[in-house]
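notes to self, project folder thing:

trying the whole complex as one job this time. last attempt i did each chain seperately and stitching them together was a nightmare. two parts in total, labels are on each line so i dont mix them up again. if this works i'll redo the older ones the same way
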Amino acid sequence: MWFPVPNSESISSMISSLCLASPKSFFRPPRCVAASAAAAPPAVCSSVTLYDVLGIAAGASGREIKAAYRRLALECHPDVAAVERRGASAVEFMRVHAAYETLSDPEKRADYDRSVVTAVDAGRRWAPFRSQWTSSYSSGLRRRPRTWETDQCW
Amino acid sequence: MPLWVPVRSQVAPAACLSPSPEAPRALSLFSSSSVFPLPNSQCLVWRTDLLVISSFRMAEQPYMVASDSETTGDDKSQSAFHDLAIGIEVGTSKCSIAVWNGAQVELLRNTRKQKAMRSYVMFKDDTSTGEVPSGGASNKTAYEEKEILSGSAIFNMKRLIGRADTDPIVHASKNLPFVVQTLDIGVKPFIAALVNNVWRSTTPEEVLAIFLVELKTMAEVQLKRPIRNVVLTIPVSFNRFQQIRVERACTMAGLHVLRLMPEPTAVALLYAQQQQQQQQSLHGSMGSGCEKVALIFNMGAGYCDVATTATAGGVSQIKAMQGCTLGGEDILKNVLYHLLPNFDSLYSNRDMNKIRSMGLLRIAAQDAIHRLSTQSSVQINVDLGDGTKMQRVLHQSEFEEVNRNVFEICEKLIKLCLADSKLAAEDINDVILVGGCSRIPKIRSLVLGLCKKEKEYEGMDALEAAVTGAALEGAVASGITDPSGSLDMLTIQATPLSLGIRVHGGGFVPIIQRNTAIPARKSMIFTTTQDGQTEALIVVYEGEGKMVEENHLMGYFKVTAIPLAPKGTAEISVCMDIDAANTLRVFAGAMMLGTDRANSPFFEVRMPTLDDAHGWCAQALVKTHGSALDLTTIPKELQPQKVQ
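result (full assembly):
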């Protein structure tokens, strides 16, 4: 699982609607391995989880995960999205699909759940940073709610 | 190669290639003929008796030059009903055409009331107008199979299109009545039809284009509107070269390909619709319902495909696909060689009598195979014309024995597909059998046996399912909605073949693995193999082989401005992107050392860039550059997407 580390670089790339023509959007995010998770402020990890992407509770059943994925696919897959937003919908669909791919596989989901817990623990230590980053990040998110990166694809 | 394409969709049939705005006007003067300029600058006049051109507006069209690699823009899929894409299935043997009529999918019939039309183009000499090739779709005078096999008609285009002359399938096609010549150097094969006792050359794309023009005209007459957008079904095993050739044939015919859809995924979409309707009638509401897993086995005259799909709530997700070039043609060939072991030597010289008797034998064998679907033995009586008669009985057991290799390959494909989708036979709810060869008893029992099922899924016409699904996709992708909700559905496609690049030593490193959901975007970091290496070749391949030679070369380009550094330290990012229309783009560039910033602008290349499957381009690259521009992988744990 890859989480964006909230520095100005990754936030601006999230906000810049991820047009592939701009090289920025396909840069891999700064490297972060599980072991070094504590070293990076994991604020975003705890603010937008894969469960949030699918709009489900963290304890959702396999069936709920699938249902949510299908419902979102029918909204955002480029085949069915309105013509004028097909470009953005591809990015959106890939994000939804990536979340689904992790959560629908029990093993990957367990790994993910563990990493989120680790991140939350670490987040406590990074509390001052977190409040700072979440505020700027979430305001960006509100303006362009569905255009940030499918980090898993990278 | 730039092609002329019309800007708007209101275009007269077959006039789209014309660089001159005069062409549409010329067309209106001769309402029964149309000009069909072909790429090798010979102009064909093609005529059909049922063409009604006066119903189209003949205003002068603005023309522009567009690269044929830019045909996927969304501006062309405006959601007006008049732009509704039709579904076309061009089979190796038969083809059909279907359209969403506002309430359901309807298959169009030709003037002979056929829904399944024979796929061929007849080249005949006509003294008044010159060359008049005509296809099996709409010509009034139905050619008999005997005439189709006389050498004057080209058929099996689907088996030949986009293949090089080194391909075993092209070699196997040499026993067809028309000429297929190979020089075994990895270029397009030479094919020719017999016209006035002369072998006249053509190409598979040209033949397909002529055929598509005829289909298009037939649909335009019946639907009383110009047709531009199509969803075409293709076999799973089609590589990107073959896809581009099909797209090019469509462009030549004035059609814009909205989607090329692997045949089983079109069937999956129809299955999703049927499941959705069933659940609605059961529960009265949309509800996501329970998930159903189906295995789709499709075998026609030319290709065999297997796919698994998970369906619920109108969404069908393709879990895995497998396909190969195997079909009725191979079964027919096995039977022909069984009936006449010295088939090759008998027909090596192509005089008229030999071609005729070969045609008669083909018809008799085909007929016997069809009858063996319901009988345990058949009597074959055929007068080969040159004094030889064949009289014998063919038993089903004999038939199954000579085709054992075919059944073994089918079995292998199904097992691979199940393994890829991580499914056991018990997980499968429905087994869907489609395509002409699915009527063969041995194949039915084999598929059902592997899936541990007593009977197959009912409610789908084996010969109409794929084209119906294509028409549904055409409606969905054209933005048509249906108040009853019968178009609220979606097939989430997957890539049938892996895509990746060559690394040092000739290894193939996949970046997008097969069966990845589309649209997809994946990237990997590579590094240099030489000290101070400032340039690197990105050589893109498609396939499943571990070494690049086993895969299809898609194209190559050079990444420049790699910062000076010892080998193994510079970072080159390669990203592959497949959009919903299945277009592949490769982005690559060097990173500044120790940062995540580009050292200079990245390259964006649409693949394939090669015009032919020139395997020798790869050899030339190695010969010229050795390993000086090679890349290699970096450890997995340093790849961003592998980080957990």
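what i see at first glance: Chain B touches chain A through 48 residues (CB under 8 Å).
need to look closer tmrw
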